[in-house]
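Reopening this ticket.

The earlier resolution said the output was attached, but the attachment link was broken on my side. Pasting everything inline this time so it's all in one place.
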Amino acid sequence: MKIVKHSGAIVDFNRAKLKQSLLKSGAASAVVDDILQLIEKDIHDGISTKHIFKTAFRLLKKTSNSNAARYNLREAIRLLGPSGFFFEKFIARLFTSEHYETKVNLILRGKCVSHEIDVLVKNNNGIAMVECKFHVGKDVATDVKVPMYILSRFNDLKEAKHEIFSRSDTISKCWIVTNNRFTSDAVDFAKCSGLNLLSWDYPKTDNLKTKISNRQLYPITCLTTLTLSEKEKLLILDIILVREIVNNSNDLERIGLSPNRIKNVMKEALELCRLM
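Inline output:
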């Protein structure tokens, strides 16, 4: 059976891959098998992966909101756009979870010119600049021109002293983070130049997807019991992670949710962060 990807490419339907993604949501094997049977009844040549995904999400949601939220993780990251500002805040939260000090959106003077930096992080190994490349389109890849450009900025900044975490800091490392993927040339150039990369699927064993899942760093946009408008209101209040409403449900009152809605949202949030 041939299906059509977001990019327009035509590929064979991969039942095993779909099953694995459903199992990773936390759904029980019996539930996954039932969903697969229903999807396979609907599949025909030329069906889109988008349609298959929406069907799987809808069927998962009938059994568990939190499992549907995990399954929808990549779309939830995309909903941190379109500008990428909230994605930058999300990445800062990710580094914080790894015991870094963080600052976002600073303008620093390099040896030659000034640069606006998305995120700056500090641990015992020094200070790093983190540049975030956010893409709304699902199939847009960050190509080699991006690390080439960022390397030149990094080289300009590391030659100067900065007031970041103290009065006289130096930047010794550079990260590039994207919500999609890097081209092979971008990866090769970064490796050769000593730049650190993080994307949805790179590196293989500690990528953005696995970091989020392993640490329960789910963005607030994951939650299926909130409307898009409600998610945007929480983001504006600087509520970026689901765990932040687990620790303070008052923010749900602030955006006008009823006690019954708050109960439903909190149930999903606790299940998603595996606190129930």
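Reporter confirms the inline version is readable. The longest strand covers residues 114-123. The longest helix spans residues 49-63.
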